[in-house]
Amino acid sequence: MRRRNDRGGNEERQNDRRRPLLSVRDLTLVHPESETPAVNRVSFDVAPGEIYALLGPSGAGKTTVLRLIAGFEETEAGSVSMQGELLSAPGKTTPPEKRHIGFVFQEFALFPHLSVEQNVCFGIRVARERREGARAEAEARGRELLARMQIERLAARMPSRLSGGEQQRVALARSLAPRPPLILLDEPFSSLDADLRGVIRGEVRRYLKEHDMAAIIVTHDQEEALAFADRVAVMRDGRIVQEGAAEDLYKAPSSAYVANFLGGCNVLDGEATGDRAMTAIGEVMLVTEATGPVRVALRPEHLLLEEVNGEVLETGDDAAGAGNAGHSSHSLARVVERDFHGHDITFRVETNGVSLVVKSAYDANWREGDSVRLTAREKGVVVE
Q1: What span, in angstroms and rounded, lies between the C-alpha atoms of 219 and 152?
Q2: In sequence order, what DSSP letters do the residues of 44-103 get, joined into one string?
Q3: Listed residue (78, 313, 356, 153) closest to 169, CA to CA
Q4: Max Cα–Cα distance, the chain, nearest Å
Q5: Is residue 144 one of the residues assigned to a domain?
Q6: CB atoms within 10 A of CB 164
Q7: Both 167 and 285 in a single domain?
Q8: Is 376 helix (H, G, I), strand (E, B) or coil?
Q9: Could you tell me if residue 235 is inside a domain?
Q10: How many domains does the chain divide into?
Q11: Are residues 89 and 124 in the same domain?
Q12: H or E element: which one contains 194?
């Protein structure tokens, strides 16, 4: 009998994970001063423990979607439901404090009369319990987050004496401390120095995964979205234009807009015949077959530069990948720009009237004015 009950419990838990934690359906909002919707029929689900990114330029509607989910804005159409409970719909808005959703917005909003440690521990529910040891447990959780955000030395300091980056880390720790099932993050790492940003981003991701917390992050930084999120939705003019796993979107963008927003891309006009297209750089093999006029996207790292006489200057894995594109042909190009980044070099080259960006190994030694042979080392993606 016990074994049957255990199996039933496991099945119930598995079903819970299959059900969306959050369901957003056809969310729409038009600001009074504008005739164009700030959010236009946006729909998506977030699973328990999943990290979902809304990526797009300023004005795309990302933060407004977060505010609608949090309950700070009333939707004109569509709905927001969490764990099967309707939170928002036209004429109905559950107050933010009753949604059990954590959030970090760009203004931070720390309590000015509380110390850093008191801010972090404020929302921990266990601290409000009257059982023995609850307060000590809350304080221990707070100290752990202070350490993970690298602000333990600031525990007794007041918010007015913190830098913008320090305030942002306190706000992150405070929102994570109660371990809500869902947390909303609006540009949560924007005030951090470049070196610290990656460290804190990794700590926040690990904490979310360790405690099975879901998150929606808003960012205009494609590198941040790809590194942090499980799934990414690219927004434009209030709409989601493509959604999917981060790697899938990077490898197979549906449009030139998505391709360029996810890290920059070369888009070439071409004429397709089956599995290949003739372009300004010669014949390029295609991921999917097509016929007629096409636009072909190739990432900078998917192009190969070689000596005109055929001697490959790139080494190691870079050189070994040169044949991955099948039988793509090549063209003669001229180097017009060279940007050294330490771990790699970005070249801008011109060929047959088009300009392309190529990412090469750190030891590639071409200079402006050099002639090179340009080849597609990977298959191109046909985009809209």
Answers
A1: 27
A2: EEE-TT-EEEEE--TTSSHHHHHHHHHTSS--SEEEEEETTEEEEETTEE--GGGS-EEE
A3: 153
A4: 79
A5: yes
A6: 11
A7: no
A8: strand
A9: yes
A10: 2
A11: yes
A12: helix 194-210
Go through 204-217 and write b for each residue having 16 or more CB atoms within 10 A of its CB, e for each that does not.
bbebbeeeebbbbb
Name the amino acid, one letter, at 213.
Answer: M
Report the length, in residues, of the chain.
384
Task: Name the burial class of residue 175, with classes exposed (0-12), middle (13-18) and buried (19+) by CB atoms within 10 angstroms of its CB.
Answer: buried
φ, ψ at 65 (rounded to 5°) = -60, -45
* Virtual torsion, Cα 157, 158, 164, 166, nearest 10 deg: 30
Q: For residue 68, give the amino acid letter.
A: L
Q: State both tokens at 129.
A: 């319990």
Q: Which two tokens stand for residue 338?
A: 């060279």
CATH number at residue 126: 3.40.50.300
pLDDT tens-digit profile, the chain (384 residues): 344 455 555 555 555 556 899 999 999 999 888 888 999 999 999 999 999 999 999 999 999 999 999 999 999 999 999 999 999 999 999 999 999 999 998 777 899 999 999 999 887 754 455 556 677 888 889 999 999 999 999 999 999 999 999 999 999 999 999 999 999 999 999 989 988 999 999 999 999 999 999 999 999 999 999 999 999 999 999 999 999 999 999 999 999 999 988 888 999 999 999 999 999 999 999 999 999 999 999 999 999 999 987 544 333 333 333 334 445 678 999 999 999 999 999 999 999 999 999 999 999 999 999 999 999 999 999 998
The answer to whether 283 and 327 have CB atoms below 8 angstroms apart is yes
3-class DSSP state for residue 175? helix
Q: Which amino acid is at 97?
A: E
Please tell me whether residues 77 and 206 are part of one structural domain: yes
For residue 48, the one-letter residue type is P
